[in-house]
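Input sequence (301 aa), recorded before submission:
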Amino acid sequence: MKAIKQITGTFILLALFISSTAVAGNRKDKAQTAYNQGKYETALALWKKTIAKYERRGKGALCTVYGKAGMAALKLHKEDEARDLLGKAIYSASASPEAYTTLAKLYRKIDNLSLEIDVLEKYVKKYPSGKEIIPMQERLFATYVESENWEEALSLWEKLPATYKNEPSNKTALLKANIALNKKEACNKLATEILKSDPKNTTALDWEAKRYFWRGENRYQSELKAYNKNKTRSQYARLLEAFKVVTVDFKKSLGYFRKLYALQPSSDNALFLGNIYARLSTPSKAKYYHNLAKKLKDEGK
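Predicted structure, token format:
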């Protein structure tokens, strides 16, 4: 008799389980049908019931409908709810490439850079051959530059397609990363390349202008210091030769700074122009730009 009761109890439990599974499966089917028919409110409500069931049991990670529910919420313009559901989707059994790409765009829309980077990184790692791998990598590079993750930006650059790398705006982003990491040779090469296709690129102009200015100024100060320590004829002759060399650098710098000042009339750029004219023995122009630099600084420019 006891054995019969145990068997009966087992059948009852099994029947309940089958019934419960059938109901859950039926609910999922109805939700998908509703979604396909554009009945997003109905679909979302049904999927949320399934989600609640999993979460009550502490098994949210096994839920397979977070992503679908998130997309339904998005169709209804419930973006806060969509972000929440898709955020759970990428940590659950319902993770899909679409969940990552959609969530990244939603984070971008609310300007949450750190969370966007996190999702982009996860997609790139999980789907290296994914359909959206190229745009996701390109966006990840842009976010690395924006967030000043310079090393990560340089590392990712090598994986990007040639068409992306050849765009002046993207080369400019790479130049900024190299400037931040003090990679001078790379900066020299990039600035030259950028200015060939984009002569008004202020980042490249600024690099070239300051590169030639400081090369000339450092040589000038070094030779002047050497002469002041040893004022001989030979040392003076060497100083005059050095002045010829630095004059070439200062003139190159002047050309770049004049273009840069026309695009960015700042106090810093005016000050550099004044200093260059002083080195080129043009006192009237040196005075003009030094006075202009002071005026612009007083104006907060």
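Checked by second reader. Residues 7-23 have pLDDT under 50 and may be disordered.
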